[in-house]
Amino acid sequence: MSDSQQLWENYAACWSADPGERPAALGAVAVDDVAYRDPGTEVGGLTELAAYMAGFAGAFPGHRFRIDEVLEHHDRSLARWTQLDEQGEPAMAGVSTALHRDGRLADITGFFLPA
């Protein structure tokens, strides 16, 4: 498994992490001033991203993300992912891109794919 693949796997786990463990887990995979955006939001910094993740976990209890594929070059990566429901069935799919800095994610953009 490449470093980028592992980074995305660890990042994906943050979305369904225990609330008390999420900030430390997120800090291990993203820089302090991380920028995050998807079609519904734009947040900056670990605290805001952790809060957004907590809101996601509350809205979709039992859901988690599976990283299906990672492409990488020049401190950038693209991850194809699937959101799985509480039974492990696909609920949504998408892609996310990121700029890497110091071995962590620095600027993340998520896209949701049509069903």
UniProtKB/TrEMBL annotation:
Q: Which organism is it from?
A: Streptomyces tateyamensis
Q: Where is the SnoaL-like domain?
A: 11-107
Alphabetical list of InterPro entries matching this protein? NTF2-like_dom_sf, SnoaL-like
Matching Gene3D superfamilies? 3.10.450.50
Q: Name one Pfam family in it.
A: SnoaL_2
Name it: Nuclear transport factor 2 family protein
